[in-house]
Specification:
By secondary structure, this protein is mostly helical. It contains five helices and two strands, in the order H-H-H-E-H-H-E.
């Protein structure tokens, strides 16, 4: 599961569809409607939010807006597209870590999108998040080199 901190505009088609599905899974977990993924670290910042379900709906609403702008037909009935939640902080370290991770993925599966994103020096965060100084989030699973 990857609930990106970067704005969904940077995702390729495969990434945007995956984000929608994973966001819906996160919503099911936060709603107590599934047994799997309950301890997934990506959910921590949503669980810590005062209104976790509003936060995940707000997150998914931005994904839906991006999908609709691209002409995709995501099922808006699966979320509350008018949900509003207070913003969540994301550190610059986390955003930059995810940006580098996304660029590697784009180079492998969507070279044209990677080329377009390569010129972006300061990626925008997802609309639910606001930037603060700091390192990679403690919940992030960073692979170790062997």
């Amino acid at each position: 599961m990857r609930l990106w901190s970067v704005h969904p505009q940077y995702l390729d088609a495969k990434g945007l569809v995956a984000l929608w599905r994973e966001g819906l899974l996160a919503k099911a977990v936060l709603s107590g409607k599934t047994q799997g993924y309950r301890a997934h670290p990506q959910l921590l910042r949503f669980r810590e939010h005062p209104t976790p379900l509003l936060a995940i709906n707000h997150y998914l609403a931005a994904v839906l807006i991006e999908a609709q702008a691209r002409g995709y037909r995501f099922d808006a009935r699966k979320i509350d597209p008018k949900a509003a939640a207070s913003p969540i902080p994301v550190t610059l370290g986390q955003l930059h870590y995810e940006w580098a991770h996304l660029l590697r993925k784009l180079h492998a599966r969507a070279p044209e999108k990677a080329r377009l994103c390569a010129s972006v020096k300061h990626p925008e965060p997802h609309p639910l998040f606001f930037l603060v100084d700091g390192p990679i989030a403690p919940w992030e699973v960073v692979p170790t080199e062997t």
